[in-house]
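Hi there. Long-time user, first ticket. I'm pasting a complex I've been working with (about 755 residues overall). I'd like to know whether the download I got is complete or cut off, because the file seemed smaller than I expected. Thanks.
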Amino acid sequence: MSTETVNEAHDSDDGHDAHHEHHIPKGLLRWLFTTNHKDIGTLYLWFAFIMFLIGGAMAMVIRAELFQPGLQIVDPHFFNQMTTVHGLIMVFGAVMPAFTGLANWLVPMMIGAPDMALPRMNNWSFWILPFAFLILLSSLFMDGGGPAFGWTFYAPLSTQYSGDSTALFVFSVHIMGISSIMGAINVVVTILNMRAPGMTYMKMPLFVWTWLITAFLLIAVMPVLAGAVTMVLTDKFFGTSFFDAAGGGDPVMFQHIFWFFGHPEVYIMILPAFGIISAIVPTFSRKKLFGYASMVYATASIALLSFIVWAHHMFTTGMPVAAEMFFMFATMLISVPTGVKVFNWVATMWRGSLTFEVPMMFAIAFIVLFTIGGLSGLMLAITPADFQYHDTYFVVAHFHYVLVTGAVFSIMAAVYYWLPKWTGKMFDITLGKWHFWCSLISVNLLFFPMHFVGLAGMPRRIPDYALQFADINKWVSIGGFAFGLSQLIFLVLIIKACRKIGEPVSDQVWEGAEGLEWEIPSPAPYHTFETPPFIK
Amino acid sequence: MSKQSESKHTTEKSSAAFESERASDVQIPKTRAQMAAENAKTAKKLVFVVIGMLGFSFALVPLYDVFCDLTGINGKPSNEAAVYESVVIDESRTVKVEFITRTHSGMAWEFEARTADIRLHPGEMGEVEFYVRNPSDRDIIAQAIPSISPGTAALYVNKTECFCFKHQPLKAGEEALMPMKFYVDPQLPKDITVLTLQYTLYDISATVKPAAVVAMNNS
Ligand code: HEM
Ligand SMILES: [Cu+2]
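Hi, the file is complete. Here it is re-exported in full:
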């Protein structure tokens, strides 16, 4: 009886599918109206890459100004706009959409679902994104310039000392927020409802697990960000005083609300990376991932803890000692599950038959460099020490290690790992290796010396600096330009891959790769798992 | 399509074996319509969470105020006059209270404390005068906002009289002396020996109610 039902489902699915296959519109309209998770994944990834290049160009302006002490290239107000918009674009335009793109491509394939659960909403959540960034970027050309108050838009900088473009900033953040929330809802529903028979929770690949948890974080904190920008908007334009002491408000409350969003947000940008590394390391070690269950629990505890550590960004605001102690120890507690993860990756490699393909090189670089970022985080978590480090380049070094050599390297590793599955062709391995080595060397030249100038007292977000920092800043800027140029190698490689230049690959692509996505043909057909697979 | 159903996981077994294993599985695949309905239901629940969290972000504002009122940790002292009655003076220790004044940006007034700091026993009354002058050529209504550091001391500073309890109107060119009377609660934690009381003057002429302006002109 039930067998029959299954067969019927097969038949109708096949019929439906054949019908579908005929109607993929060509050209621009295909991309505009597509509800296919692979198309939308591709759109997200290209969008993220373009934003990465635009945000990167702004970083080049920043580093050019800081190449020498003194003010030479841009005026301070424009410098502030560059640091602000660079941060906003990299966080909301590059890293987050790249992860959403990967989720679109991979989650359905990894759990044996035919598509995302809400395909039409999926289309919307992508297509509102370009408008958000068009609005943000166009604000730079307004009278008085774009946002210049830092990506953290602290009140009263954003409420009293900002230009009219603040309204556009608020509007664009609202759109970004709506887009991420829709994306997150889609991921949660897909994972909860659409897993193939037999795909129990504890059989899900870690990328799926980490994204499920990330999506819950997004659903919990993006509305808080929306609340914060709305309060800034009404304080600035409609006479409320949420953050204005004269009207009974409190500017420090802004920081509490912002970081209640902000700290979980940094984990939103790293948990999917943990999933990616947990997929790549076992493949090229030819071993199972060490400690699968502990990885799941570690991810969940990091996510829960991320809600009670926000005030480590506010140690210098004059909190009572008891509160500082609480946030210090809670923050340090997070490094325990994070350490579990690093331990598991290393244990996976231990006595494995390692090979060093391009994705594996990025994954190993991730493990080492992310750990450096975690350690500097631990230093910042020490309250009395943070009074010295706060708002210096040491903090800039910390978050670029976790975000660039962490999140961004993991995204690159992911692209190299799954690209052959997407295109059916092996990418240009020589270019990939060039990209890796150029990036690795330049990124460390760029960010490592920042620790030293930071400890020596160079403040962040200032277009000029004391003479004694000149030498280090010169080298940092050279590292910056080199890292920027290295990404053009990646661009060429991706364009070649999208034009399907390269050797055809097998279905499994990498010897040692395991999981449903490696069992379907390469390139992955437009529709996969119309009939759910059965997982043993 | 057909290619894909032949992929590895099915080809490993004969297709009959596959079907029977399938049949024994409790999960019967749902139709597309059933699936869509179920997905919409889950999505709706998540939308409620989103709305709830948006509400929570605004609820943080009153929660923050309540929390800070109870604990005094943001350095905001009470806005109401305290009554000085049967307070025991703790002569075993003295605390130093410092006064800092500033005007908010764009506010042209001169504003200073006549006494930079005073030393007193907890429970003892202290009195300080603040001098203000409006050197500009327009009438301005000001509001002084106090802030106490360390923040936890805010709960122990009791003012019996303060100019900050009401608006301060000054006509163009006028000056005034404003009194402030207070005592430090004898319950003040022992580790606090120095308190800083800061006043910031804000220009609130634009936001204050017209009635207040009328009252000012009549005075
Ligand atoms: C062991 C884990 C970590 C610890 C203990 C830690 C600790 C800290 C602390 C204490 C600060 C505040 C420094 C200050 O402003 O004085 C900070 C800033 C920051 N952290 Fe981390 N962190 C950790 C991991 C991460 C991760 C994984 C990310 C992102 C992927 C991240 C992103 C950031 C960012 C963006 C900032 C700066 C925000 C800003 O002021 O603009 N951190 N971290
Ligand atoms: Cu944080």
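A couple of notes from our side: Residues 76-111 of chain A form the longest helix (36 residues). Chain A touches chain B through 67 residues (CB under 8 Å).
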